[in-house]
Amino acid sequence: MNQQERLIEILKLLETEPFLKQETLANHFDISKDTARRDILKLVEQDLVERVNGGIQLPIIKQQIENYKNRVVTKSAEKKAIAELARPFILEKQTIWLDVSTTVETISAKPFSSHPLIVTNSIDNAVSFSKNGNDIYLLGGYFQAKSHLLKGPMVIKELMNFNFDIAFIGASGISDDGIFFDELDDISLHQQLREQAKQVVLLIDSSKLNRTTAFKINFDSIDTLITNEPLPENLKQVIQEQPINLIHP
To answer: Do residues 29 and 4 make contact, with C-beta atoms less than 8 angstroms apart?
Structure first.
């Protein structure tokens, strides 16, 4: 096996092994430690791996992107079901907010005939919806690699310039105590969306029902809840007490 073949094989190994030592490579390919070291240097020079603690791993940004892609694939049937229930809300030439959410992104699977103006802070939403020929405003801020989003005070400031007909949002969880998010910045963003949107629609799959985190907004922040299966009784009772339109298959 020549060096090029070994380099390809090393990258394949790193798809399943998060970390490989120089000694591990030498034993795996039955080569000297010096040869293994030269292979590592070649991969590092090409920015294909990072050196850490006497070994190598895939670059952190690549791992984060792969993790995000895996989230898109996971529970894809449930997300598609939710997206199909959400699409009828989109009417001719509306201005629409799309949250950073793999479920929200699934709405882009089919082209729109209604020609909406789309606003988002999600790189993935912008790419997905642009393939259908939609006009898109991508709000500025600093880039958070793990979620492919732009965030910070600039996003909130720019958000205030829009009058949304509808805002499709995601969340990290929902319980009978409220709607939950992973980061404090998410709270100010969604509070501002409530001010800017005529209608706020929460899209959330069943894996997030009765899940809580550290940061919460109240139920009056949404008008409609769409999920892929009936709610648990505790959550169903609370939602029915609110002026919230509940939709599921």
So the answer is: no
Q: Work out whether strand 142-144 and strand 149-151 pair parallel, antiparallel, or are unpaired.
A: antiparallel
What DSSP designation does 59 have? -
What would the pLDDT profile of 28-53 be if each residue is shown by its tens digit? 999 998 999 898 888 888 777 888 87
Question: Tokens representing 244?
Answer: 């919230």
Q: Please write the tens of the pLDDT for every residue from 60-77.
A: 655 555 555 555 555 588
- List, by residue range, all CATH 3.40.50.1360 domains of the chain: 75-247
CATH code at 75-247: 3.40.50.1360
Pick the CATH number of 3-58 from 3.60.110.10, 3.30.930.10, 1.10.10.10, 1.10.600.10: 1.10.10.10
Helices (H), the chain: 3-16, 22-29, 33-45, 60-73, 76-86, 102-105, 123-130, 153-159, 184-196, 233-240
